[in-house]
Amino acid sequence: MSTTTTDNDVFEPSPAESAMAAAPVQSSVDWNKVARFGGILALALVFISLSGMPVGLDKRTILYWINPGVYVNNPDGVGLTLGYLSLLIWPILLGWAVGNEVVLEGMQATKRGFSDLLAGFGVGALGGLGVFALTFLMGLDREMDPDSGALVYGVRDPLVNWNENLYVLLTFNRGWGFALWVWPLLAGVLALIGAGLRLLPDGIRKAVLAAVTAIVSVSIFQFLIDDVIEGVGETINDPGRLSNFFGDPDDGRPRVDSVFDGLIEFVYAQTGGLRLQGMILIGVVAAALSLAGSYVTRGRFKASRKAYFDKPLAQRTMSTSVLMFVTALALIILPFFTGKIANELFANVGIFLLLALGLNIVVGLAGILDLGYVAFFAVGGYTTAVLTSAGRGDEWPSWVPLFVTDDGEAVVGGWLIALVFVVIFAAITGLLIGAPVIRMRGDYLAIVTLGFGEIIRLLFLSDWLSGYFGGAQGITNIESADFGPLGTVSGINPRSVFYLVLFFSAIAIYVSWRLERSRLGRAWMAIREDESVAEAMGINTVNMKLMAFVVGAVLASFSGAIFSAKVGSIFPTSFLILVSIIILVVVIVGGMGNIMGVIVGSLVLIGVLGGPKQPGLLQEFSEYKLLIYGALLIWMMLKRPEGLVPNARRSRELHQDEFLQDAWLKGEVDTGDDGDVAVEVAPA
Amino acid sequence: MSNATKTPILEFRNINTHYGAVHILKDVNLAIYPGEMVCLLGGNASGKSTTLKTLLGMVTPTTGEVVLDGEVVNDKPTSYRVERGITMVPENRRLFKRLSVGENLQLGAYLRNDKDGIKNDLERIYDMFPRVKERLTQKAGTLSGGEQQMVAMGRALMASPRVLLMDEPSMGLAPALVQTNFELIQQIHEEGIAIFMVEQNANMALSIADRGWVLQTGKVVLDDTADALLQNPDLRKSYLGEA
Q1: Could you tell me which chain B residue has the CA closest to the CA of A532?
Q2: pLDDT at B72 over 60
Q3: Residues A630-664: pLDDT tens digits?
Q4: Which residues in chain B have their CB less than 8 angstroms from residue A679's CB?
């Protein structure tokens, strides 16, 4: 990369340069920048306050011992709540960000020092003033209702969260006069801490960050840790579980006391949140691990990683297969060491991963922006439901098979047979929707697919077809997928869903991976790049685009079939446009056209934040999920347009300017006889 | 060479092409014979690109016949014609910018199944353009203009064409490169590939071509050998900038 930020790179001048280099430039506070960042912080804090996040999350204590003031919704909790954390994290982040400096190669980095701390404090103080301004305005608007004696607000109507709870929370129940001095001071000190992190030596800073991250994650993910520890404890106490691969893990046995129960009690408080002793323990352990880790590996991990990626593709196969084998093994035994909640999370991630992999072929490879992708998910779900539920609409003629026994049990293998029909119907729907749509390009195509996606949902919802699909009541009593001796996949047993989803995801990943390197994949990419030229190369663009549509449709329908068996009932509301949008966001955030990116994107967005209706790791945030999605998307488009896991190719394209600048500084630019600039770029 | 004894590879017989109601090509007759180099000259909006698109089947003519090896191919898709040996180097090169040079070359051979033939052609292209070989894994969009031209030609050659259609090969190239570019075209021509060049740079094109046509608002107004065209006073006035 050309622009090295001072975050983790140390600027090393070459011998010739260092001979000439003067002493490091003494930094002074860039007040413009401070004002800008301070303004951003103030706006962010006000916006977050008004979004209702601080009040909504105030119920959840995460650090039991710190007492910032009065607890609006959490009278018995004494500690730092998630609500306050949602505000207090920003001064730290922006205090850190204000010290970020782009050091061009060949230029001298400024020396870090007191001015950084000052800038950090300035940013925080400005942000704090923003909060004060909010409380001041709220205070002006606050009136005692003479009848009821309650405090009422004039602008309450448009701003739901402009209320007494927020006022109390922001002023610590001491009035806006208290907010005037406490917020600038508090935010300032936090921002100063953020800025101060830059002054620490690399190793120490890493240790501090590790400790803080560990403390915050351990407290936020308390329910997950409980869940995992239960799973691990049970497996340790009863290793026989491991042989019971496809059986029901929760077969009614009493819960085995985990060896970790004592530890849990030591770390967590009764009312939730970390105890002081727990916080110290976790912080120290994390910091020690971080220090020990960087001492032991001393960059060897980074080096081996680099060595791996420097190898040509052909020579990587050995390491790649070892890596894949280990990953596969880990994934297969993983559900034995996690409890129900985590397995449920994994199952949801898998369902959306399948969808995202399919959309990645359509959008990432073939470049067809399909905004109605949820239609195929719905077709898969409804087809499975119709074939495996006794509760399906009563107008189906008798020759439409129903894989349910007379006793109302699932037929062994019925789901698999239904899956054949699912694939056929998804492919047909793909062709039907694709055929009229595919002749369009760009924006028009996107809008038309959006329409078709809604049409499919409305068909399932309509009264006209309610004799078949149940209209708004949907289809209930969908049988679980019975694989006979292999076990049954149903929503009651998330581990089984996890395995089913894992199996199909593995297939989808393999197919995507092969397709990317195939003649077909090349044809798709050619169409994505330049449709007319692709046509001139002899590529039948219409057929190829239809093919992408159909492959995507089939992958989505797998997901729908699993979803149907897992949930046991489906309704038109499970297939809102929002699902299409969220899958698209997963693909974009992960990195378009990149399988690894799609996997990471699903884990981060669906696993951590949650799907359209499925809770994620951050359960508390589910109300603000779309807000966070939106903010994340905007941030990504500004700072990392290539996605979380960039495709080397795409990343280079988006950062072309930086490459040119970098190459120019290194003297690698080949200004050929044509005056055009060519840059040597390392092979992908 | 005597054209009377040979059948043309590619022929336009009284072609009329419309875009909507607009009449673009008016009774155009063209014939390209194996192994020759011909050029089509014309100003803006004279129908040059439409001619190419009609030849390649991306636009269907309203009346008239497009004849490929004696077969009328009016209703045959582009892929059919590409398979029969007609390939285009598009205007401004138009590489698949985000794909690697290697992938671009592979896409040129999209319709071919003969693995050995593809391998041989790749080697031939590496011999012809050593720089292309050096940059196989590099993204095509990061190449310099000259290199992109080489890749574009290499991509077209990968289809193992008998006729190469070139849309404004000198467009968007620095003057110094135009000369090298025409030398490359000649080099390809010497391998026995017929070349149909659409150009605005009449002087340069006619200096290497055997024959040429001049297209004006969709009509062929001049049809002669390249030498005769170079001497033609009307042409010199309108295209070669002579008073």
Answers
A1: B58
A2: yes
A3: 888 888 888 877 777 765 555 555 555 555 555 55
A4: 142
Find the closest chain A residue to B88 by CA distance: A536
Please check whether residues B156 and B166 belong to one and the same domain: no
Contact A674 B173 (CB under 8 A): yes
Q: Tell me which of B144, B148, B151, B179 to substitute to probe the interface with A (most A C-beta atoms closer than 10 Å).
A: B144
Q: Name all contacts of A526-532 with Cβ < 8 Å and 24+ positions apart.
A: A526/B96, A526/B99, A526/B107, A526/B110, A527/A366, A527/A367, A528/A365, A528/A366, A528/A367, A529/A367, A529/B96, A529/B97, A529/B98, A529/B99, A530/B94, A530/B96, A531/A441, A532/B58, A532/B90, A532/B94
Residue B104 lies in a domain: yes
Do B214 and B232 share a domain, yes or no?
yes
Chain A residues within an 8 Å CB radius of B147 = 672, 678
- Give the structural domain span for B2: 1-85+161-243
pLDDT of residue A496: 87
Contact A684 B144 (CB under 8 A): no
How many domains does the structure of chain B reveal?
Answer: 2
Q: Closest-CA residue in chain B for A654?
A: B98
Tell which of A309, A310, A532, A533 to mutate to test the B interface (max B CBs under 10 Å).
A533
A282-311 per-position pLDDT tens digit: 999 999 998 888 777 766 777 777 777 776
Q: What is the largest CA-CA distance in chain B?
A: 55
The CA distance from B159 to B87, in Å, is 7
> Which pairing describes strands B63-68 and B71-72: parallel, antiparallel, or unpaired?
antiparallel
Q: Do B78 and A678 touch (CB under 8 A)?
A: no
Structural tokens at position A523: 């044809």
One domain, residues B25 and B71: yes
In a domain, B210, yes or no: yes
Which positions ≥6 away from A675 have C-beta within 8 Å?
Answer: B174
My answer on whether B179 and B79 are in the same domain is: yes
